[in-house]
Amino acid sequence: MFFFATFALLAAVSNAVQVVPYGAVGDEVCKEYNTYYKIQGSCDSYVECNAYKATYKTCPDGLYFMRDVQWPTYPCAYPSDAQCEYNDQPQRAVSTADCKTQYGFFASPLATRSDCGKYRMCVEGKAFEMECAMGLAFNPETGRCDWPDLVPSCSAEEFLGFKCPPATYDEFGKAYVVNFSIQGSCHYFFSCMEGVARLLVCDRGFAFDASVNRCVDATKVQCQEG
């Protein structure tokens, strides 16, 4: 029992985030043959150890070091996928006329409360106007596409062009999920729960059957897109 407990503890320690002090120099920081070390106090600087040789690196502006990355996977990612600790600081941003940082996802000046799916992707300081998948809105707070009802800057009803009827509940107080077909669409439909609408799509090979208000085998549904 002691052996297994000790082994589990060692495994947990080996998988923990490895941090080196800011300003540490030399190959002596490399305690493993190939690995990454986070630099203390920094969101985006790290040490790469390759054959016990240390190389100090910094992620491109706008990207953060991923704490749980395994060598040799590229260790830098967007802030939505890599966290910056409370006391850590990123490098000084190199902004352009259209981008706050060289890399990142930002709110688009073309987006409105009723047209929330647009966002701006920055690559090497150049802005590209993008759009979320149908039915999703861009959330500037997380840098991700999300359900429109979860995005404060978006009016979900205006964006989707649909308003759910008042919610109904079963005897245990659980809200019923009610689906609604969309005219001219065989695969997309609105799903309402507690008065909140979300645009969903049937899986491949299925189509929405308005007679039963759910997705069924597409060969059993007479529907024409348009």
Shape: elongated
User: What share of the residues lie within helices?
Assistant: under 10%
Strands ordered across the widest β-sheet: 1-2-3-4
CA-atom Rg in angstroms: 24 Å
Q: What is the N-to-C order of secondary-structure elements (H for helix, E for strand)? A: HEEEEEEEEEEEHEEEEE
Overall structural class, as computed from helix and strand content, comes to mainly beta
Residue stretches low in confidence (pLDDT < 50, at least 5 long) are 1-15
Please give the oligomerization state of what you see: single chain
Give the N-to-C terminal Cα separation. Answer: 66 Å
Under the CATH scheme, the architecture of the largest domain is: Beta Complex
Q: Number of helix segments?
A: 2
CATH C-level of the largest domain: Mainly Beta
Any idea how many domains? 3
Which sheet architecture does the biggest sheet show? 4 strands, mixed
| Arithmetic mean of pLDDT | 88
Q: How much strand content do the residues show?
A: 25-35%
CATH topological fold name of the largest domain: Antimicrobial Protein, Tachycitin, Chain A
DSSP E strands, number? 16
